[in-house]
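Supplementary Note 3. Input sequence used for the single-chain structure prediction.
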Amino acid sequence: MNEIKNTKPRNVRRLTLTLFAILGMSLVTYAQSDKAAVEATLMDYMEGTSKGQVARIKRAFTETAALYSVNPDGTQKRLPIAEYIGYFKEGQARDRVGKIVSIDIVNNAAHAKVEIISGNTKFTDYMLLLKLKDGWKIINKSFTREAIR
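The predicted structure, written as discrete structure tokens, is reproduced below.
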């Protein structure tokens, strides 16, 4: 009888630890898949704008997204996404090289920092993203630029 009493608590502990391990791995996998999806959205933006792939740019943003920056006089500038996308022509590549600097995700909201080098200018973009029914989308972008070299 002692053997049965002793193995039961061990089996319960083992089962509990196994369940916690599975749950932990599931959460990590979920977080990694969200991170990969956010990265894919950011790559659509960066590669779409550098390679003249208009469909990829559109896929990265919501239709109501806008870009925000500061005018030379210190006032806010707002550019609707449709107007921004209009600057790019299908198949016309640009001298733009981008990299993802950071991503922070909490549940269905994220922000990311992206740097784009274009000629002698470095753009620093701060993206706000939401996980919508059709995936992660950029809802707004604020950016600044600085001369380099």
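The beta strands are 61-70, 76-80, 97-106, 109-118, 121-132, 135-147. The CA atoms of residues 3 and 75 lie 78 Å apart.
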